[in-house]
Amino acid sequence: MEIEKTNRMNTLFEFYATLLTDKQMNYIELYYADDYSLAEIAEEFNISRQAVYDNIKRTEKVLESYEEKLHLFSNYVVRNQLLEELMKKYPSDQYLISKLQEIQQIDEEEF
């Protein structure tokens, strides 16, 4: 499994997990976050390896679809880049820096 895809799926999962069914959440979390194999997940839930694979592939598409429609992750990335740029551009403005850090903290608490 390629690391970029794993990282992306883990990140999308963080943003959209609450929109998934319990089964989708379990399979994706075990597969991507906990690095379980398809066989291990199948054994855990007493289903076929193919059923796990199919569910994971469908859930990946669902997560990508949510991001395509809602843009939570991409907006988060852009927002953080802008905050970092402002902090670098105005490092001596302590009031601005503190407010920018508050914004970052809000983002971190949400996700």
Structure description:
It contains 6 helices and no strands. With 111 residues, the chain is mainly alpha-helical. It has 2 domains: 3-70, Orthogonal Bundle (Arc Repressor Mutant, subunit A); 73-110, no CATH class. The chain starts with a helix and ends with a helix. The model has no long low-confidence stretch (mean pLDDT 94).
Please summarize what this structure is.
Belongs to the UPF0122 family. This is UPF0122 protein llmg_1069. The chain has 111 residues and is mainly alpha-helical.
- Total of domains: 2
- N-to-C series of helices and strands: HHHHHH
User: Structural class, from helix and strand content?
Assistant: mainly alpha
Assess the beta-strand content as a share of residues: under 5%
Tell me the CATH topology of the largest domain. Arc Repressor Mutant, subunit A
Which architecture name of the largest domain does CATH use? Answer: Orthogonal Bundle
- In angstroms, what separates the terminal alpha carbons? 25 Å
Radius of gyration: 18 Å
Record field, number of beta strands:
0
Q: Say which CATH homologous superfamily of the largest domain is assigned.
A: Winged helix-like DNA-binding domain superfamily/Winged helix DNA-binding domain
| Poorly predicted residue ranges | none
The percent range for helix content is over 70%
Tally of separate helices? 6
Largest sheet: none
Shape: elongated
Mean pLDDT: 94
CATH class designation of the largest domain: Mainly Alpha
Pfam families: UPF0122 (PF04297)
Protein name: UPF0122 protein llmg_1069
Organism: Lactococcus lactis subsp. cremoris (strain MG1363)
Family: Belongs to the UPF0122 family.
